[in-house]
Amino acid sequence: MTRNQDQGSAIIVVVVFIMVVLIMISTLILFNQFRTQSLLSYGHQLQTYYNTKSIISLVMEDYLKRLHNEDYSPQSYSLSLFGNDSTRISIEPWGFFLRGQCESRIKKTITKRSFLFGSKQYSEFRYALNLGDIKNPLVVAGNTSITGDAAVGIMGIKAGTLAGKPYKGSQTVYGNVYRNKESVFPLINTDMIKYQRQQLKQINKSLTSPLLYTGSERIYLNNQVYSLSQEQLQNLKTNGLNEIVGPGVILLTSNIELDYIRLLNQITLFSDSTIAIKDSVEAEHILVFADSISIFGAAVLKGQFIASNGMTIGNGAQLLYPSIAALLLPNNIASEKEFIVGDDVLIEGEVILAQYPGIFQAQANYKLTIEPTALIKGIAYSDGFMDLRGKVEGSVLANSFYFYHSPTIYINWLYDAEINLPALSRKFVHPLLLKQPSELSILQEL
C-alpha cells in the first residue's frame, strides 16, 4: 500500500511539473508573439512616419508654387507604395500656417499624423529693427537697447534725452545701421487670412449640428463642423463637459465667454462677435477668428488669435510657441484703434497689427502698445504706430514709433525699449506672414 502511495505521489509530482512546464512554454510563446507583433507594429509605425516625411518633401515644392500664385485652396496628394500600402496628405492654410493631415497605411497598420508648416527665415526679418518711416530719424533715449542690424531712413538713428533721461548706451545700435532712401518695410500677407474667413463665412450655420452632450466630460469633434452659443456651452458645462478635442470647427452664434474648459488639438473657433478667454481656460493648437478677442491675465494658451475689430491681452497672459496674436483691421475701421499687450505678458511667436487687406499708409494712426514688462519672443509688427516699452527677443517692424510723455507726443522715439535679435532661438520657424516664402519647413507635429 505504501509503495502504491509513493507511485501515486510521484505521478502527481510529474503531472504538476509537466503542467508548469507547459504553462511556461505557453507563456513564452504568447510573450514572443506579443513581442513580435509589437516589433512589427513599431516597425510599421516607423515606416509610416518616414513615408509621411517623404510625401511631405515631394509635395512642398508644388504647394509653394501655389502660394506664389496666391492659390490658397486645399490640396490632396497621394503616394502609392507596394501592394495596398499608401500615404496620403491634405494641405490647407490654417491661420498663418499651413496644416498637413496625413494618413499612411502599411499592411494593417494605419497611422494618422498632422503637421504645422511655416517658412524658413524671411530675408525681411534679418533686421532687429525695420522702420517704415524713412523721412525722419529714429531717436533713442533712456535705457533703450537695440542689438542686431537696423534698417531706417536716410537720417539714421540719433541719441536723445527724454523726461530728463539721456540715452545711456555706448552706441545707438549694437550692429549695422542701413540708411535707406526707399523703404524695405514689408506688408503682412492678409490674403490667406481673407480666404479662410470667406470659407468659414460660407458655411451655413443653420445646417450645422449643435454641439451636444455625449454623457462624457470630453467631446471629440472628429473633423466635423458644429454650432455653439453661450447658452449651449453653459448647459454642456453644467452637465460635466470640461474638454473639447479636435480636429474640427465650431461656429459661434453669439458672444462667447470661455472659462474652465480645455480646447485641444486643432480646433477652429469662428465668430462674427466677441470672444473672451478667461484665465481658467487651457488651449493647445487652436485657431480663433473673431470680431474682437480679449485674453485675460494668467491664461496659458497655445494657438492663433486673429481679430478684426479689437484685441487685448491682459496682464500676465502667456501665449506659448508657436502662437500668434493678430489684429487685422478693415480699412473702414482702422482709424485710432489700439492693440494692447499688457504687463508681464509672454508671447512666443508673433504680435501683429495691420490693415486688412494690407495697404501701406504713411500716416496710419492705429497703435500697437507693448507695456514695459511684456516680453515678445519672435516678431512685433505694426504698419501703424508702435508704442514699445517692453522687450522683444527677435525683430521689430514698425511704420512709426510713438511715445507719450505729458504733455507731448514723441514720434519715432524709443524710450526704455529693448530689442535683441540674436536672443531669438535659431530653431524659430516663422508663419507665412509675407508673400513669396522661399522655402517651407515643418514647424512641429501636432
Number of helices: 3
Major sheet strand order: 22-23-25-27-26-24
How much of the residues is beta strand, in percent?
A: 35-45%
Outline, from the CA principal axes?
Answer: elongated
Index terms:
446 residues, alpha/beta, 2 domains, six-stranded parallel β-barrel, five-stranded antiparallel β-sheet, 45% strand
Textual characterization of the structure:
With 446 residues, the protein is of the alpha/beta class. It folds into 2 domains: 2-119, no CATH class; 124-430, no CATH class. It has 3 helices and 32 strands. A hairpin with a 2-residue loop joins strand 28 and strand 29 (408-411). It is elongated. The mean pLDDT is 86.
Give a quick rundown of the structure.
Helix content is 20%, strand content 45%. With 446 residues, it is α/β, with parallel strands linked by helices.
Write the layout of secondary structure elements.
Blueprint: H1 2-68, E1 75-80, E2 86-94, E3 97-106, E4 109-119, E5 129-131, E6 138-141, E7 145-147, E8 150-153, E9 157-159, E10 161-162, E11 165-166, E12 177-180, H2 191-201, E13 209-210, E14 218-220, E15 225-228, H3 230-238, E16 243-245, E17 248-252, E18 256-258, E19 262-271, E20 274-277, E21 282-295, E22 300-313, E23 318-330, E24 338-341, E25 346-356, E26 367-370, E27 375-388, E28 391-405, E29 408-411, E30 413-415, E31 418-420, E32 440-445
Parallel strand pairs: 5-8, 5-28, 6-9, 6-30, 7-31, 8-12, 13-15, 14-16, 15-17, 16-19, 17-19, 18-20, 19-21, 20-21, 21-22, 22-23, 22-24, 23-25, 24-26, 25-27, 26-27, 27-28, 28-31
Antiparallel strand pairs: 1-2, 2-3, 3-4, 4-32, 10-11, 28-29
